[in-house]
TrEMBL record:
InterPro entries xref list: GIY-YIG_endonuc (IPR000305), GIY-YIG_endonuc_sf (IPR035901), UPF0213_domain (IPR050190)
Organism whose genome encodes this protein: Candidatus Nomurabacteria bacterium CG1_02_31_12
Similarity comment text for this entry: Belongs to the UPF0213 family.
Highest taxon, organism lineage: Bacteria
Alphabetical list of SMART domains matching this protein: GIYc (SM00465)
Protein name as annotated: Excinuclease ABC subunit C
SUPFAM superfamilies the record matches: GIY-YIG endonuclease
Domain spans labelled GIY-YIG: 1-75
Short name of any one Pfam family annotated for the protein: GIY-YIG
Length: 86
């Protein structure tokens, strides 16, 4: 399985969207400042993820969720979540 995920920074409230084949390990790396793109923004909360059967689907979905339409989809999907601030 491959995963597309959205993290929310507890520090600044901003979102980070990514894709991986090991969600638990990737989440640990984000929170331990081992990912360059999020190094100074942690700690993080996992606010959303989707499972995909193959890598290509996960990365296509990641690209969509980073788009304007994808961000609107996420905000609508998560609007009742207490974690949503961004």
């Amino acid at each position: 399985m491959f995963y597309t995920y959205v993290l929310q920074s507890k520090k600044d409230g901003h979102w980070y969207t990514g894709a991986t084949n090991d969600l638990r390990e990737r989440f640990k790396k984000h929170n331990n400042n081992k990912v360059f793109s999020t190094k100074s923004r942690g700690p993080f909360e996992l606010v959303y993820y989707e499972a995909c059967l193959n890598k290509d689907d996960a990365f296509v979905r990641e690209k969509y969720l980073k788009s304007g339409q994808g961000k609107r989809y996420l905000k609508n999907r998560l609007k009742r979540s207490r974690l949503l601030t961004g």
